[in-house]
Design brief:
The chain is α+β, with helices and mostly antiparallel strands and about 170 residues long. It has helices at about 35-45, 110-130, 145-155; strands spanning about 25-35, 60-70, 80-85, 95, 100-105, 140, 160-165.
């Protein structure tokens, strides 16, 4: 738990009661949590969307469904999921509305999922909220590493546009 603004030294272990998920919520046992610039800004007490101190930081997680609240469908106990939690991800358990969680494909590790979820959500927002790519349209996605290209295409593929991936010529690669 972040008990005062600072760096990693401001994080303190605490024991909190384990709550049951409410209607529409999942409780997830965290197996990996991302650590990025937003987390560091939160620790410093300078992230405008963070809750008031004290709170448990942790912007992105991967884990397994531990409990399912009433009304939740499409998830099962033990299923691997990832989410952009904004906070709470450094805990052993995190609880959020089920709509925030995505299933993790078998070929993606928990560590990879936690590391990529913020980038994946950002790509999704750019594709769907900014560019507003629709089914039947094409999207040109620059693809430096092949793995990132596949994830970007998957992001597009969820809503059926036809992505066109082009690699930069070697002379342009840093």
């Amino acid at each position: 738990m972040l008990t005062k603004a600072g760096g990693p030294e401001a994080l303190q272990p605490v024991e909190l009661a384990i709550e049951e998920p409410g209607s529409g919520e999942l409780r997830v046992r965290v197996r990996a949590a991302g650590v990025g610039s937003t987390d560091l800004i939160m620790l410093a007490g300078k992230y405008r969307y963070a809750p008031s101190i004290p709170f448990v930081p942790g912007y992105e997680v991967a884990g397994v469904v531990d409990a399912i609240g009433p009304g939740v469908t499409g998830f099962k106990i033990g299923q691997r999921v990832a989410a952009l939690t904004l906070y709470g991800g450094y805990g052993e358990l995190v609880m959020r509305e089920a709509e925030h969680f995505l299933p993790i494909p078998d070929e993606v590790s928990d560590v990879e999922a936690a590391a990529v979820i913020l980038n994946y959500v950002t790509a999704w927002q750019m594709i769907h909220r900014v560019a507003k790519v629709r089914s039947g349209q094409s999207a040109l996605l620059p693809a430096p590493p092949a793995a990132l290209a596949r994830r970007r295409c998957n992001c597009c593929g969820l809503w059926e546009p036809q992505p066109t991936v082009r690699r930069r010529p070697r002379s342009m690669t840093p």
